[in-house]
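Illustration: Metalloprotease TIKI.
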Amino acid sequence: QVVFALNQTLLQQERLRAGSVQIPYTTEDLIKHYNCGDLSSIIFNHDPSQVPNFINATLPAREHITAQETDSYFRQELIYKRNERMGRRVKDLLGEHPEKSFFFAFGAGHFMGNNTVIDVLRREGYEVEHTPAGQAI
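Result:
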């Protein structure tokens, strides 16, 4: 799976450099939607896992199965489990020090797709509030 993922990632990068494939959003789009707290927008619906899209119609049947398995593995290991760990760490800190105030800042990947850090904390009974860019804390 690692070799397959590496090859697919390199092929995707080659297509991007050659101009035969385009990213459906710009860096400015990412910044805008991150600042607005709108990470479930159309930008992130293209690939909510933040990993290369291994599944495409041009793959032979055998490689298509490998692509599905690899995509599922990366989503589970790199996205969902990571967010669970981060959410538990936040919960533990808050629980261990109820008298203290905390500020947590996360990268965009922790808010994308299903089972985000926010989802983890809300399941634990915490109220999570987005602070827009420019708003005083």
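Reading the tokens back as a structure: Helices lie at 2-18, 27-36, 42-45, 61-96, 117-123.
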